[in-house]
Amino acid sequence: MTYKHIRYGLFIITIIIMLTAPDLIVDPLTNIFHFIYESLLHLAHLSFEAIEELLDTLVERLFETEVHETQTIVFYLMILLAGIPAYILWRLLPWLKGKLIAIVFKNKNHFLTYWSSLSLLEKIKVSVITIISAYLGSFLFF
């Protein structure tokens, strides 16, 4: 028995488990994704607070300002720091939009060519596989 047979067997067992008891697979996956999402949000918030505190300290020591003045200066500095990437993104959007439309049309033409080259039986197979995949994927999102 080769590793290929073992992997194939484990894949079949996983599919059977997902079809008979999807909560055994979906619940741990959902918990893992939720933990990762929550951890990334927490890390982003802590990073924001650290940057704000660093700017507060720098402005307060550099310009010898009071708390309210420091907070006002830091607020406008942070607006500026967020505005620069937003401006760059705003300038790139027309280019990105053109590239995205070109990719969509290319993939659409490729898909239509592929679909028209399939026989009726192959179209049924592709449709059934798509429906089953959507059914199994719905457990992850709903």
What is the makeup of the main sheet?
A: none
Oligomer: single chain
Q: Count of helices?
A: 4
Strand coverage percent? under 5%
Tell me how many strands there are: 0
Distance between the termini: 39 Å
Unreliable spans: none
Structural class call reads mainly alpha
Following the backbone from N to C, one meets helices and strands in this order, namely HHHH
Radius of gyration, in Å, reads: 26 Å
Give the overall pLDDT as a whole number. Answer: 90
Q: What's the domain count?
A: 1
Chart the SSEs and their pairings.
Layout: H1 3-20, H2 23-63, H3 67-117, H4 120-141
Helix pairs in contact: 2-3
List keywords for this structure.
single chain, 142 residues, mainly alpha, 4 helices
Question: How would you describe this protein?
Answer:
With 142 residues, the chain is mostly helical. The protein has one domain. The protein has 4 helices and no strands. It has helices at residues 3-20, 23-63, 67-117, 120-141. The chain is elongated and about 75 Å long. It starts with a helix and ends with a helix.
